[in-house]
């Protein structure tokens, strides 16, 4: 008999065995089989119970947590790349920073040859001084012409008085006809001289206007040219527009560069963000302001970042691609689109664990709060970006202009 068909009991009883022993052996076999069946049933019940508990637990977890979360690993760190470009053309004399260097806002990174701009500045300074002195002389002439007009008025009054006295003696032997004619001619000459003085005074007053030396148009034009020359000289020192790290340096010493040429890029890593590309089927419950938890492949799951949804893009990635898809064809396959969602990170966490532009991130958005909006209704403070070199401080050149005005007597005449 094969081994698998043998009875469980290892003892063998012969045909001549007592009936009581044969009955006892059958009872033991049945008891063993019942125990095995009960054990299998108990194990099946336990397994079914555990499976049911796990299913209920997972269902509760999904209902309470998972259905309020949207996740993606198609997310990358993004940041501003601030190009360093010259405002004037020139020859590079020095480069003060290289790739990976940390620079501060306003720090000089590239220097251009400034000989030509310095000479232009000196010429503009001399022209300004000359304009101030000419305007000062013009105003002095105005005062002198006013005095000349008063003198001509006095001369006319004297001539008229002489004519009046001689007119009373006309027809007598006390005055001759010729002398009376000379008195009349003197009045006419004095009147003409007064008219000429008044016209000259009007012409000078028209040139002067109601301005002082400092506000005269000629002086203001010269001051504007002086400021332009000062700015051109200042622009030979190209400064960092913001604090950050240097990347993509392409400028070399001795190179002649044109205005607007990209020299290097400044990346402010303390203000980076994450662009998370979610499928269009995941966007229904995503709102601005919802909390986000992120992990970076660089640090792994041990380091978590926290942020919030800052905004949703106005179009999908394919819509803004260089060659947008054209689906108006006979052969068309639907492709699930992805929309970039911008996530603002916590600056304190970025300072502790800095990120680099382009790194991969895993994103999880908690969508419980549905009070936010899907589209922004205005600009936010984080959108403001100001270059440290965009508006140069003109206080030094203004102080120099005021000093030149005082040194050349601009405050003496109004």
Automatic annotation (TrEMBL):
Residues in Multidrug export protein EmrA/FarA alpha-helical hairpin domain copies: 116-236
Taxonomy of the source species: Bacteria, Pseudomonadati, Pseudomonadota, Betaproteobacteria, Neisseriales
Stated name of the protein: Multidrug resistance protein A
Classification via Pfam families: HH_EMRA
SUPFAM superfamilies per record: HlyD-like secretion proteins
Family membership noted in the UniProt record: Belongs to the membrane fusion protein (MFP) (TC 8.A.1) family.
Database matches in PANTHER family: MEMBRANE FUSION SUBUNIT OF EMRAB-TOLC MULTIDRUG EFFLUX PUMP, MULTIDRUG EXPORT PROTEIN EMRA-RELATED
Gene3D superfamilies registered for this protein in UniProt: 2.40.30.170, 2.40.50.100
Compartments (UniProt record): Cell inner membrane
Keywords: Cell inner membrane, Cell membrane, Membrane, Transmembrane, Transmembrane helix, Transport
Broad class of the protein's primary localization: membrane
Membrane topology: Single-pass membrane protein
GO terms under biological process: bile acid and bile salt transport; response to antibiotic; xenobiotic detoxification by transmembrane export across the plasma membrane
Disordered: annotated segments: 370-390
Transmembrane residue ranges: 44-64
Biased composition range(s): Polar residues: 380-390
GO CC, one annotated term: plasma membrane
Coiled-coil annotated spans: none
Organism whose genome encodes this protein: Paludibacterium paludis
